[in-house]
Amino acid sequence: xxxxxxxxxxxxxxxxxxxxxxxxxxxxxxxxxxxxxxxxxxxxxxxxxxxxxxxxxxxxxxxxxxxxxxxxxxxxxxxxxxxxxxxxxxxxxxxxxxxxxxxxxxxxxxxxxxxxxxxxxxxxxxxxxxxxxxxxxxxxxxxxx
Length: 145
Fold this sequence. Notes:
The protein has 145 residues and is mainly beta. The protein has helices spanning 6-11, 57-62, 72-75, and strands at residues 24-30, 37-43, 50-54, 66-69, 76-80, 87-89, 96-100, 107-112, 120-123, 136-140.
């Protein structure tokens, strides 16, 4: 197994491409118990925009489907609870910080080390009223990162 550097991870990003005219939508979601709620602006998922299905150990175990918020300062906000209240977990090379509700354990989001990029990863399964069976999935080999 080869080691991937932070710069290699940044250059080989699995993030689906988007342009300035890619249609977007505001999605609402949160954890299972309701302690945390959020809104995020993202390209329309129901129109075939790819959602990532990663095979790394945590995504596989927890069943995550991932969307990327490229401008978290403007395109993501908590409407109930706050980021500092979430339980944080890192593993392996500690490039990604996974964040969970401390009450119900729902995985809501993850942050990538800012040396790699300034994005937020949202668990699409935490988005309310999103039919995940209708999403276009792209498999990502997270085990190799």
